Description:
Blueprint: H1 19-30, H2 36-46, H3 49-62, H4 74-86, E1 89-93, H5 101-104, E2 112-117, E3 126-130, H6 137-152, E4 156-159, H7 165-172, E5 178-181, H8 195-204, E6 206-209, H9 221-232, E7 235-238, H10 246-256, E8 260-263, H11 274-281, E9 285-286, H12 290-297, H13 367-374, E10 380-381, H14 382-389, H15 393-405, E11 409-412, E12 416-419
Parallel strand pairs: 3-4, 3-7, 4-5, 5-6, 7-8, 8-9
Antiparallel strand pairs: 1-2, 2-6, 10-12, 11-12
Amino acid sequence: MSGQSELPFQKAPGVRLTDAQRLDWLRLIRSDNIGPRTFRALINRYGGAGAALEALPALVRETIGARKIRIADRDVCLRELETAQRAGARFVALGEPDYPQALRAIDSPPPLVAVKGHGDVVLKPMIAVVGSRNASAAGLTLTERLTHDFAGQNYVIVSGLARGIDQKAHRAALKTGTIAVLAGGLDRIYPSEHRGLAEEICEHGALISEMPFGWEPRGRDFPRRNRIVSGLALATVVIEAARRSGSLITARFANEQGREVFAVPGSPLDPRAEGTNDLLRQGATFCTRAEDVLEALALIRDPGDVPTQSAQEDEPSGPAQVPLWDETDLFGVVEVPASMEGMELDEASAPAPEPLHPAADRSGRPTVEVLEELLGSAPVAVDDLVRASTIPARDVQAALLDLELEGRIVRHGGALVSLLPRTSR
């Protein structure tokens, strides 16, 4: 390790990684089965990415039931850094002064994000505008109107570069500043017809991704992207969303991150309004004009004042901790659950993910059935469900997502969930 100390996860802005440390950070987060939570635990335990990389082989051997860890090749990561530089992009580390402040406040923020475009735009207050790919004309008109009004109050617009509402929001904010979060690498614009739009965005805004250069987006990468879209913003506005829309995942993340969620009401006869109307029934704030959002954000205009989750991770303190290898992907869900097939994960032509086989506990019962039995009207922690069910965390998370999409559970703050009675469906 370099003599300069690395960035702790709660450090005042102003400290930057050295080039050697940035390479170590990239190697650690690109290593197999290392996600943001595991990355944070390793950094806190060993004091730096370099030391963590050196300790990993022995740590895995000593940990019963640990998953296999393949440490990312140094030369491969060095080439990725060089590729980013040639593309006009750079990697910004969590804790550095140009890391987005609001994103820093979420649970398990990406340790490194690749940014291309104007770096100062990521430090400004943002509003996320998301919605259906198959947007109506009225929805697109409202998107443009709201976006112009938000931009007029010096908010940067963030979205996911998808067709429909996302595309309209980006285009309406091209001159004032917009950020597109990608599900793949910065050199893998998706959908491909938005490459020109991506270039225009970089003129006054930025592209952001946590994925490696050269990474083609998969179905399960879109929810990962959505949690960054909501994490960057002080508020998320959902304009149109079918009941199985990926925009609802963005809204769910925003709610879990302690951010404001707004939904535009629509006709009960229009399937594109089913998701937004459901959000309103679940407690989202009514939005028909920009003032509905702007007035609510007036007290938290500074991204540094954004509310954080009430539940905080416990920092590891030694080798006697619970094994770190529960996290094979950000949410413990390696594949997209079968119930997510056909969702608007942005593009109908996206590579089709392989569905999960229904997970089961040791008795052979499906995980969903086990969780329905364990859950009740009183909120319970997800970690408690994992322990009580003795089912792997990744399978519990997948089953909870199935139940959520079926409208069977309610998510509360602090990673708590409760079951809705069937009679209330």
